[in-house]
UniProtKB/TrEMBL annotation:
Top enzyme class: oxidoreductase
Domain 2Fe-2S ferredoxin-type: 12-101
Species per Swiss-Prot/TrEMBL record: Wenzhouxiangella limi
Protein known as: Fumarate reductase iron-sulfur subunit
One BP term from GO: tricarboxylic acid cycle
Length: 245
């Protein structure tokens, strides 16, 4: 029986910014690892190989490995993205990986986006607001398919944090809600079950930490791994909030 051999691929040098904030002796430093590339290799696969072969204590996050959970967000050659969706073949032979900025660092490439996202959601009250107590025994309210599709489009956000990491305003304003927050407001504004008015939405995003703080650099739109229409939604929400003010 003939044994198939795999043709040698590129030699990759992957530099990872390593630091463990829980260790008082740890200092941020670059660690380099040499790998052989093969067809279909993603950064997630490469990191697994690095951890298996060279650095068993390397910290990074993953759950779904399919661009759905948003856990593996990191800065790849200076650009935020998902490790599981990034093919090494689309990158140069030398790759630098760093944790997403602006979030609490757990260690190496692992950051706590959940704490930030929960705080933002609580501030913006990102849930359906009804004036009456819902009847759990009633039939679900009908919705036109076109409207349901519009809501679903905005609901595809996976809260990976890439838009925040790419946001110039977020670097200057600690409490800025970012594109992810404004996208959530746009989503609930569309939902007919939410009985809030534009005046109500203005109370949570009508300031410099909300839609009027956005400098429109649109790094969020450029790096969103789900290709959400963030540019359109931010502009639309800003126009609506101006009419309220």
């Amino acid at each position: 029986m003939k044994t198939e051999t795999r043709a040698p691929g590129r030699a990759l040098t992957i530099k990872v910014l390593r630091h463990n904030p829980a260790d008082p002796d740890s200092q941020p430093q670059w660690a380099s690892f040499e790998l052989e590339e093969y067809e279909g290799m993603t950064l997630f696969i490469a990191l697994n190989e690095i951890r298996d072969r060279f650095a068993p204590d390397l910290q990074y996050d993953f759950v779904c490995r399919a661009g759905i959970c948003g856990s593996c967000g990191m800065v790849v050659n200076g650009r935020p993205g998902l490790a599981c969706r990034t093919l090494t073949s689309t990158l140069p032979a030398e790759i630098t990986l760093a944790p997403l900025p602006l979030f609490k660092l757990i260690g190496d490439l692992s950051v706590d986006t959940g704490e930030w996202m929960r705080g933002m959601s609580e501030r913006l009250e990102t849930w359906v607001h009804e004036q009456t107590t819902p009847d759990i025994h009633a039939l679900e309210e009908r919705m036109e398919p076109e409207l349901a599709e519009e809501i679903y489009e905005l609901d595809r956000c996976i809260e990976c944090g890439c838009c925040i990491a790419a946001c110039g305003t977020a670097r200057m304003r600690e409490d800025f809600v970012g594109a992810v927050g404004l996208n959530k407001i746009a989503r609930f504004r569309l939902d007919p079950r939410d009985q809030r008015t534009d005046a109500d939405f203005y109370q949570v995003i009508g300031d410099d930490n909300g839609v009027f703080g956005c400098m429109s650099l649109l790094g969020c739109h450029d790096v969103c791994p789900k290709d959400l229409p963030l540019q359109t939604q931010i502009a639309f929400i800003r126009r609506k909030m101006v009419t309220v003010s």
